[in-house]
Amino acid sequence: MIEVRNMVKSFGGFRAVDDASLTIETGSITGLIGPNGAGKSTLFNVIAGVHKPTSGQVLMDGEDITGLAPHQLFHKGLLRSFQIAHEFSTMTVRENLMMVPAAQTGETLWNAWFRRGQIAAEERALAEKADEVLDFLTISHLTHELAGNLSGGQKKLLELGRTMMVDAKIVFLDEVGAGVNRTLLRTIGEAIQRLNRERGYTFCLIEHDMDFIARLCDPVIVMASGSVLAQGKADEIMQNEAVIEAYLGTGLKNKVET
């Protein structure tokens, strides 16, 4: 689905992404790991249109999408979440979900005056879809809660819910487990797997929790110093000497050997 070819992103004289090439297959849950500063989030930002690449290409289903803006990619079904969730804190959880679909009738002043019936019908349909999403994510009890009152893990679930409001094709998740307790992380992992299995979502996720990665992801791609170092199944990656030396460290090496 996504092919990155010889991607370079420089900031001044520093190459945050350095000739990186990788493929994310349709229907996969692909893990992207590496030390802090490896270029993972920068690569996500280039793919998702947040940053323009210095050079290189991004293809989606064979189409060159290099340098397209986030809103253009949104309409193609490519979405990107961030390590820190971005919610409308003074709106309810349901209202946050209802805000997602683009080109809603009530967005123009003319329609707000003269198409009130159409707007009301559209809002009812959106509310119903939002309720279905909350049901799917097992957080219906939070429907009327202000989003700003949610825990970190609940906000990550809300971000997943947003992708369901537009039937995304591929979702890039940046450190979905950051600041999330183990119980909610398990719920998030199960939601990702169900979206992948039941609705055909493709995922690529950055995560430092190797247990979480091993449970969800196949394949796993390792970045170091802006480049792709290795790719394979999680257990292969954890046995790879180059990966251990460059990123995972002697702690994991000892764990693997014992």
Automatic annotation (TrEMBL):
Lineage: Bacteria, Pseudomonadati, Pseudomonadota, Alphaproteobacteria, Rhodobacterales
Record SUPFAM superfamilies: P-loop containing nucleoside triphosphate hydrolases
Keyword terms: ATP-binding, Nucleotide-binding, Transport
Protein name: ABC transporter ATP-binding protein
InterPro entries: AAA+_ATPase, ABC_AA/LPS_Transport, ABC_transporter-like_ATP-bd, ABC_transporter-like_CS, BCA_ABC_TP_C, P-loop_NTPase
Record keyword ATP-binding present: yes
Organism from which the protein derives: Brevirhabdus pacifica
Regions crossing the membrane: none
GO cellular component terms given for this protein: plasma membrane
GO molecular function: ATP binding; ATP hydrolysis activity
PANTHER family: CONSERVED COMPONENT OF ABC TRANSPORTER FOR NATURAL AMINO ACIDS (PTHR45772:SF9), CONSERVED COMPONENT OF ABC TRANSPORTER FOR NATURAL AMINO ACIDS-RELATED (PTHR45772)
